[in-house]
Amino acid sequence: MAGQTRRTEPKAVYVYGVVAADHPCDLTGLGGVGDPPAALRRLRTGRVAAVVSDAPPGLRAKRRDVQAHQGVLDHLGRQGTVLPMRFGVVATDEDSLRGELTAEDSAHLATIDNLARRAEINVKVFCDEDELIRSVAENDPTVRRLREHTANLDEQIQLGEAVAAAIEDRERALEELLVAGLGPIAVDHLAGSRVRGAAVNQSFLVDNERAEEFAETAEHLDAAWGPAIRLRLSGPLPPYSFVSTPNLTPEPASGRGA
Predict the structure, then answer these.
(1) SS3 content of the chain, % helix, strand, coil (to 5)
(2) What's a GO cellular component annotated to this UniProt protein (predicted)?
(3) Considering the entire predicted model, what is its pTM?
(4) Where does residue 96 rank: exposed (0-12), middle (13-18), buried (19+ CB within 10 A)?
(5) Which of 122, 239, 243, 250 has the smallest number of Cβ neighbours within 10 A?
(6) Segments in the chain below pLDDT 50
C-alpha cells in the first residue's frame, strides 16, 4: 500500500563480554566474529557496558570465529577486568540487552570487583587407564575377591561394576588431593563437566601475582604422582567458570565447522 512504512526487524546482538563503564574498552584494530569480521562496539548502560557486534547469520563454532571471540576478550582483559561470555551468546536485540544489563547492574559490578586482577586456570588429571585398572585389581579388596571367584555371568557383571566403582573412588581421591594441593593458592575452585579421558576437571580462580606459584605447585604434584598420572594446565584464561549471567538471554550458536 502506498505510503506504508516498512518495519525494520531488530538485529540480534552477539555479546563478547561485560565491563565496567570506566573500562578503557579500546577496540582499535579489532574485528569480531563472522566473515568478514563484524565491527565491534560498546553498548553502555549506566555503570556497566557490553562489548558487542551484530550477530552474523548462521554462526557456527569455526576456528576463526572462536579465535576472534577469544582475541577480543584477551585484548579487553589486558586493559581491565572483563566478565567473559562463552562463545555463541546472542541477545535478541540491543534494547533487550540494555534492559538485562540494567537489571543486573549491581550484580555485574560485584563480580567485576571480585574478578579484578584474577584469572582462571583449568587443571585436568589424566591417568594411564591400564595402570589404573591394574592398581585397582591389585589393591581393592572387593575387586580382588571377585576376580578370584568369578565363575558365571552374574559374577562377571559384579566384577565389572566393582572395578568401575573402585575407579570412581580413585578419581575422587585424586580430585581431593588436587584441591588440597592447589586450593590454598587459589581464591576459589569449581569442578568442571566430565571430559572424555580425564579423571579430574577443576577450574581455579587465581590472583595474577600467584599464577606462577600455582603452576610450580602443579608441577610438583605432577612429579610426585608419577608417570601414570599427568596434570594438564590451561591458562591463565578469562574466568568463564566464575561468571554467572542468567539474564543475558543466551542463544548459543551450535555446530562446529572447519
Answers:
(1) 45, 20, 35
(2) gas vesicle
(3) 0.78
(4) middle
(5) 250
(6) 1, 249-258
